[in-house]
Amino acid sequence: MAIEEKDHFITAYKKILVPSKTLCRKEFTYSGYTYGEIFELAAGLKKTLTRRGAEKSVCLCTENKAVVAASILASLAGACKLILPHSFSTHALMEMYDAVGFDTAIADHPEEMPGVEIITPIAGNPDDLNPESMRNPDEPFLSLFTGGSTGKPRVWSKSPRNLLAEALYIKDKFDLTPKDLFISTVPPYHIYGLLFSILTPFLAHARVMPEIYTFPQEIISTINRHKATVLVSVPIHYRSLKVENLSTPSLQIAFSSSGVLNRSDAIHFLKKTGLGITEIYGSTETGGIASRSIRENTNSWKPADVVSWRLSGKRLAVRSDFVSREMEMDADGFCVTGDEVEPDKNDRFILLGRADGIVKVAGKRVDLLDVQNKIKMLPTVRDAVVIALPVEKSRESVIAALVACELTEMQLKKMILEKLDPYAMPRRIKIVSSITQTATGKIDFRRVEQMFLSEKDKTA
After folding, report:
1. Is 169 left (phi over 0), alpha (psi -120 to 50) or beta?
2. pLDDT given for residue 245 in this prediction
3. Which of 26, 17, 63, 43 is nearest to 210 (CA)?
4. Residue 455: per-residue pLDDT
5. How far apart are CA 114 and CA 364, in angstroms?
6. What three-state secondary structure class fits 239?
7. 207-212 vs 181-184, strand pairing mode
8. Rounded to an integer, what distance in angstroms lies between the CA atom of residue 243 and that of residue 398?
9. 8 and 172 in contact (C-beta within 8 Å)?
10. Model confidence over 102-113: pLDDT tens digits?
């Protein structure tokens, strides 16, 4: 990031806790909380947490966008560090507790968290936020999780610069203004949802629809009824919007992330709305890296202006202010991602796929080796091979498992579901008496893949 861009961030950061009277009167959530009320909630949270002495780590278990925004402000003011789980399921929360531990939470459903003190935000005096004592912009203040049922959850810390510099870049890059109204189909505890449906609109002084909308007619009617201008969604929801009555005249920009968008879905959206969906490529640990639009008629990605990239072997290596400090960096500040890429013209690149055994299913990351190891631990299972089957050149995958065991397919599926979250469940399972290995004792993964693909062709 250039010097003037860094200065732009610092200037904006210092002003974030000093809202104008005009801004305080403006709505943040549609027909709900004003910006002023969010600052009051932030002040109340800071006062409540300050009484407890040492800075706490607080689990943020809420989809209330106003409360999420207030919690972020309170944390920036030094009240606490925040922990965002990758899911609110009991299983995910237990894994997160084992990883970092916490005894305090801001939660929508406190009865699901026995033994944890639940903080209910109450209004305070915004003057107590004290901009002079704001957190160091390069110190971690928030932890995000990836993983879940597919092995130990990974913890990625984020500094104010990591998140707010990216939100500012998004705001400026896509010319988002106070006139915009955001509608989102993704929850705010996902980093994509946090950035695009909370932080970016907050910094743009825009408004957001308060709910998470997932059904196609609900999305369409909400956009049209309230004249929303920005849609924040994911490939699975754009697939559901492949309907004949898709018409959204007020919409000015549509974002997609958490997986590669199906081309036919994007073309349908373009024909019906006149908008080329803007796809965002990145990850929790790296932040946003690149973008592209169906209008460009190319498979390649354009890196963000503030992101530097190069090849490390076949893998993509990036450098930016958005990267979590847990990423291993070389002397030049570059970190190697898990994606293989191929350079394209005009400083763009083409994604070739994952190089580390991690695949995406429904926008969530699944460790194939860990799924395989969990299956091997089940009764009567002698051996197992877990692979990802390709889906229309997408980074999304269908998981398949070849298992040597004495179980029926129904028995095996039931046991696997006790070990994994549903999204990590192999969609296709084939039970065999034994799994053939090569002369060198290795599994022929290509042959296993062909077994599933040829079986699919027969049933098509």
Report:
1. alpha
2. 95
3. 63
4. 64
5. 27
6. helix
7. parallel
8. 24
9. no
10. 788 888 765 566
Q: What percent of the chain has pLDDT over 90?
A: 58
Structural tokens at position 128: 């107590």
Residue with tokens 């490390």: 312
Paired with 434 in beta bridges are none
Count of residues for the chain?
460
Where, residue-wise, is CATH 3.40.50.12780 in the chain?
3-353
Q: What DSSP string runs through 86-136?
A: S--SHHHHHHHHHHH--SEEEES-GGGSTTSEEP------GGGG-GGGPPP
3-state DSSP helix/strand/coil % of the chain, to nearest 5: 35, 25, 40
CATH topology of domain 3-353: Rossmann fold (3.40.50)
Q: Tell me how far apart the alpha carbons of residues 63 and 61 are, in angstroms, rounded to a whole number.
A: 7
Whether 371 contacts 428, CB under 8 Å: no
For the chain, the average pLDDT equals 87
In the chain, which residues fall in CATH 3.30.300.30?
A: 358-459
Spatial CA neighbour of 420 closest among 151, 165, 219 = 151
Q: How many Å apart are CA 1 and CA 28, to the nearest integer?
A: 29
Report pLDDT digits (tens) over 282-313.
Answer: 999 999 999 999 899 888 999 999 999 999 99
State the Cα–Cα distance between residues 250 and 45, nearest whole angstrom: 36
Give the H/E segment covering residue 427. Answer: none
Output the pTM of the full model: 0.79
Rounded CA-CA distance 404/420 in Å is: 19
Q: What CATH code is assigned to 358-459? A: 3.30.300.30
Q: Could you give the CA distance from residue 193 to residue 200 in angstroms, rounded to a whole number?
A: 10
- The predicted pLDDT at position 441 comes to 47
Residues 6+ apart with CB under 8 A from 263: 294, 392
Distance between terminal CA atoms of the chain? Answer: 51
Write out 368-414 in H/E/C secondary structure: HHHHHHHHHCCCCCCEEEEEEEECCCCCEEEEEEEEECCCCHHHHHH
Please state, in angstroms and as integers, the Cα–Cα distance from residue 180 to each residue in 36, 97, 166, 197, following that order. Answer: 18, 38, 18, 12
Residue 262 is which amino acid? N
Tokens of 389: 């089957």
Cα–Cα distance measured from residue 313 to residue 407, given in angstroms and rounded to the nearest whole number: 43
